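Please predict the structure of the following assembly.
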Amino acid sequence: MALLNRGCRERLFLPPVKNNHMIKVIESSGIAKSFGSTMALDDISFFVNESEIFGFIGPDGAGKTTLFRIITTLLLPDKGNMKVLGMDATSDYKQLRKNIGYMPGRFSLYQDLSVEENLNFYATVFGTTVEENYELIANIYSHIEPFKKRLAGKLSGGMKQKLALSCALIHKPRLLVLDEPTTGVDAVSRSEFWDMLSKLRQYNISIIVSTPYMDEAIRCDRVALIQNGKILSIDTPQKIRAGFSRKLFTVKSVEKYKLIKTLRKNPEVLTSYPFGDSIHVTLFNDSSDNSLFEYLVREGINDAVIQETEAGIEDRFLELMEKGVTA
Amino acid sequence: MRTILYLIRKEFIQIFRNKFISKAIFAVPIVQMLILVPAVTFELKNIKIAIIDKDKTPESRGLINKLGGSTFFKLSFSPFSEDQANDLLHRNKCSVILQIPSGFGKDIGNGKQGKLLAAIDAVNASSAEISWAYLNGVIGDYNTDLVKQNITTSPLISSPRIEITNRYWYNELLNYKYYMLPGILVILVTAIGFLLAGLNMVREKEIGTIEQINVTPVKKYHFIIAKMVPFLLIGLTDLALGLVIGKIAFNIPFEGSIFLMFLGSTIFLIAVLGMALFISTFSGTQQQYMFVAFFCMIIFILMSGIFTPYESMPMWAQDFNLINPVAYLMRINRMVILKGSTIHDISKELYSLIVIAIGFTTLAVRRYRKTA
């Protein structure tokens, strides 16, 4: 009966789309949560499609962990409606917990149990066995299998993360919730980790992931930029980048500190943010980059190199923050 | 069921992987039994007494010899003046002063009443009372001797007397160790139940592992039971160890059924573990837990009647003891070990413990939240 209903609904209300991308694994509407006088989440609405990797990008304290705790039924929202896998996160939490794999930001496996013991433990707790779903984790677990007798607390950061992911996957969840999985992990392991996530797609597992690293956004299908408990924008990484409204210039000089101070004095300059070894600059008038060079020479910076560049997600994020635009 | 067994297995792996705890679990009962049982005693021996003998007659010397000859008293000083004696008492050099006024021997010789004056240091009220009782006893003995002498010298004078013969039951020799040992066993089991399980639970909160457990379909009661069972078994093991030490080191008489004692301790441990886990649901850190649990434990133990008789406590304290599991086990252990009480004799205590156990375990399960 339920199946029939869903079929009808799809036929009646939704335009005919060729694949199953219209099934939504998360539908959040108007979620709000405050701790005392701090508004942690304010009117959060979004949806996540099946088999999608959905990223939440935002600085520390943006509300990502709070949101993930609501999605994983660990926290009750003050307001709003959170539907996960078609179930209500508040009332159907028992059923929901069987189908979610959660990897908290802090390493939360038993440090005094071995790799193998941790994996067996979580398999048993979910009423399954490691053998049953080994295929799913084989690709990830094979990296740490040589160390299976080692205590989890004695693993390196990258290995801990792989173990945590294995444990979150061992019961074949339909939704994987990863809270800052790559924080504190080296660049190579981070890249490896994202490769693994991409491979999980073939098992029809939807993934939501949060990260403070802007460069990881590009690995997601869609991202939400979140700040101060509000979603600033939701789109594919490409479209978010394309949303950047001005010309962007990189300015380089040996004297970086003097350069940024000088740039910020110029009324022509709208924004100037340090980016690695250069400074990303936008101007009130997009065509005045020549006059900017002259200005810098006048101010005593002779070696400045100004180039137009393509905006990254971070540039767009900073622009959104600056404008205070909400999605 | 498989989940519970696996959770319990996990707890045991963790406990025995912790090098310190796994050793302490067995070291604590040994140390506690060997140190506390002989150390905690109310028996008074060698009470230091100062005697001011202003009489200096054969009668007064007889009394002094009698006192010095008993094992209770040790004649430490023989000051000449009251001031001197008071000074000794003040400086803690003696705890009893006995004054024999001049004319004591003469009065007795004349068949009159002999008068004595005793001053006792009562900083510790109970030892003062015991000293007084001992002093009374020795002087009473001496009195009887005098009467007997009088009877032999003048058989015509006789006075009617009541003679009492007593016998101490259940602990004939008033061996204090026999009284304390069952109590120390209770303290041992209480410490295991109160501290280990609660701390273990709060630790999971502190290091965040509980977060990962909470998103699993593990049921609340699964988790609570898995936290109780390992410490229940450890508590009973320690109890057995304590009993063996009691038998070997102190040769304690065991009158009742060992099974009954373990039954009582099992129910007691469930009650205490329930309380501990209940407290742990309020605590976010091990420090918070420790503070509250220690406070509760001290109150429960001191009010349990381990040192002071339960019946002599004020009414409100006795009412409080209705929810004090330690008080029940204290009675059960002493009754079973020393008196050989049967299950009927301790049924009231057992039922009360069952109610406390069910009550607090239920509270712990209900208070434990998987969602904030």
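Chain A touches chain B at residues 69, 72-76, 93-94, 97-98, 100, 102, 104, 106-113, 117, 121-122, 124-127, 167 (CB under 8 Å). Residues 101 and 168 of chain A are 5 Å apart (CA to CA).
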